[in-house]
Amino acid sequence: MNYTNAQLKMLDLAIKLGQESGVSPVMIRIGCAVLMAESGLNHNALLVNKGGSRDRGVCQWNSRWWPQITDECAFNPECAIKLFWPIFVKHPTWWIAYKNGSWRKFYGKET
């Protein structure tokens, strides 16, 4: 897979923040694959769902389920990913890409 420079930068940040949070290497790889499947590692990604909720940023924080996560944080990669790791490790199925298995096509891809 060919990653853009922006995607490589986002992967580096996600890996660094995962390591700093004490996340296992396997879960970091899975989490990064989930983020790739969810947003393409695009910190400006925005999906408006039926009903009007919005999935925001690289981690696709949903505005209905995560109203405490401001747009400012959701669209800020460092803020969003710092919040992502402790929640993802405990509840990976809360992300659709994990639940539906779409993350698997990005798992183990070399950068």
Give the topology, please.
Elements: H1 5-20, H2 25-39, E1 46-48, E2 54-56, E3 61-62, H3 71-74, H4 77-90, H5 96-99
Antiparallel strand pairs: 1-2, 2-3
Question: How would you characterize the overall build of this protein?
Answer:
With 111 residues, the protein is mostly helical. It has a single domain (5-105), classed as Lysozyme, CATH 1.10.530. It is 48% helix and 7% strand. It is built from five helices and three strands. The chain has helices at residues 5-20, 25-39, 71-74, 77-90, 96-99, and strands spanning 46-48, 54-56, 61-62. Strands 1-2-3 form a three-stranded antiparallel sheet, with no helix packed on it. Helix 1 packs antiparallel against helix 2 (25-39) and helix 1 packs across helix 4. The longest helix has 16 residues, at 5-20. It is globular and about 35 Å long. The chain starts with a helix and ends in a 12-residue tail after the last helix. The mean pLDDT is 95.
Which terms would index this structure?
single chain; 111 residues; mainly alpha; Lysozyme; three-stranded antiparallel β-sheet; 5 helices; 48% helix; 7% strand; globular
Helix content: 40-55%
Strand proportion, as a percent range, falls in 5-15%
Overall number of strands: 3
Strand order of the largest sheet: 1-2-3
The CA-CA distance between the termini, in Å, is: 7 Å
Topology order in helix (H) and strand (E) letters: HHEEEHHH
CATH fold-type name = Lysozyme
Average pLDDT for all residues: 95
From the spread of the alpha carbons, the general shape counts as: globular
Poorly predicted sequence stretches spanning 5 or more consecutive residues: none
Shape-level CATH architecture? Orthogonal Bundle
